[in-house]
Design brief:
By secondary structure, the protein is α/β, with parallel strands linked by helices. 51% of the residues lie in helices and 12% in strands.
Length: 194
């Protein structure tokens, strides 16, 4: 007669960390294939929305992180080049885990354009995100796809939890033409029709 064994289920945070680790392994495995793909290859853009936030609700924070990871994974299965358009709050910010997941992918060579819900773009001291301003999700996706096809994906860091200053600076430099393209698209949107 056997003794029943208890199965230990880790807390939600550890399960999400495990899921993020799995996504990191998938991203690392795909990084070589993405770099080897032709720069003019097909680009897929994941459009993700910030999850509704509630103070002291870790499930919603985890849902935001998972939604971003699933959106990127879906595009990685279908496309060699992948980008993310994030529809955040009034200032383009995602709650809890969603912001963490966007930063993770920005450090892993996937450009992230953030759209605001009517306010100014929140400061991004690391310079990892692209200000999509008030473009629509469709417009931002088109601009990001063109940039990916023309300039390729930004470089990925070796360790997303501890990026070096040089690695972050290389990402910033690579994203300069992306930012210029978004500024041009926003300016064209503001021009009156002739």
């Amino acid at each position: 007669m056997g003794v029943a064994r208890r199965v230990y289920l880790p807390p939600l945070g550890r399960r999400l960390a495990f899921a993020l680790g799995c996504a990191a392994a998938l991203a690392a495995a795909n990084a070589t294939a993405v770099r080897a793909a032709a720069v003019a290859g097909d680009a897929g853009i994941a459009i993700v929305r910030s999850a509704a936030w509630s103070q002291s609700d870790p499930v919603r924070a985890g849902a935001g992180e998972l939604a971003v990871m699933l959106g990127v994974a879906r595009e990685q299965r279908a496309h060699a080049l992948v980008g993310v358009v994030g529809l955040g709050d009034r200032h383009g910010i995602f709650s809890g885990g969603g912001e963490h997941a966007l930063r993770f992918f920005a450090l892993r060579g996937i450009p992230v354009a953030k759209l605001t819900g009517g306010g100014d773009f929140a400061a991004d001291p690391a310079g990892l995100f692209i200000d999509g301003g008030r473009l629509s999700a469709r417009q931002a996706s088109a601009v990001l796809a063109r940039c990916l096809q023309r300039f390729g994906p930004p470089p990925a860091v070796a360790d997303a939890e501890r990026p070096t200053q040089g690695e972050v600076e290389a990402i910033r430099r690579h994203l300069l033409p992306f930012r210029q393209a978004f500024v041009m698209a926003a300016a064209e949107q503001r021009l009156p029709a002739r």
